[in-house]
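The instructor's notes for this session suggest beginning with a concrete chain rather than abstract definitions. Hand out the sequence below and ask the class to guess, before any prediction is shown, which regions might be ordered.
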Amino acid sequence: LFYTAVRREKRNYRALLQVASLGGTPRERAFDVDSKVSFSPDGKQLVFWRRVPDTAESLLVAVDLATWKERVVATATSAEPFLGAPAWSPDGKRIAGGLLRPAPNLESTIVLFDPSTGRRADLAKLPRTIVSSLAWLRDGTGILSSGLDLKTALTNQVRLHSYPGGHTSRITNDFNTYDALSTSLADDTVAAVRTISIRNVWFADVTGAPARPITNIANPENSLLNVAALDTGTIAYT
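After discussion, reveal the predicted structure:
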């Protein structure tokens, strides 16, 4: 199993550690790792993003699992910082990544990098959208993304982008938040972490008396946002 953890003596950096699936002592395999890793389909390499604050760049770094030698596959500039983690294609010929063009013309781009040359090809451009995770379908016919579309949603939803066409279709459409996508090795099942937010308004007396709820909402669809007190007897919300 591979996981990232903050170094105790260098709190601004994460290291990549490996531990046997049955337990044991973790071993550090890479330092300064700023995303989840993705493995090549032959199991011989992994890839991750690394930020370089001095140059305001992001490096797509591949690691040989036999020698643990690193090489830079591609570089993203400060004009398009990376989003989420890279995703290696099932055929090993492409590495998908999300790049964000900041406001005022905010736009996410799902980019495909050649693992050997670093050559870039754009698959899909998503205006006013912030992508958070990517995952390939196991047959290589599309890429799933989770992300926030500021035009149509309040939460991260799942979308499918066909490959090689780049056509985008929506998979989820609700008030939950979806992230950390992964796909099954055996079929077309998609896994995601789903977060359900249920929000209510409570009233707390400045004297220290116990707080009491003044709404009783039990589902995310009706949960409150942007609560404001208009006067001593009125609360407005969306």
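Then share the key points. The chain has no helices and 21 strands. The chain has a mean pLDDT of 94.
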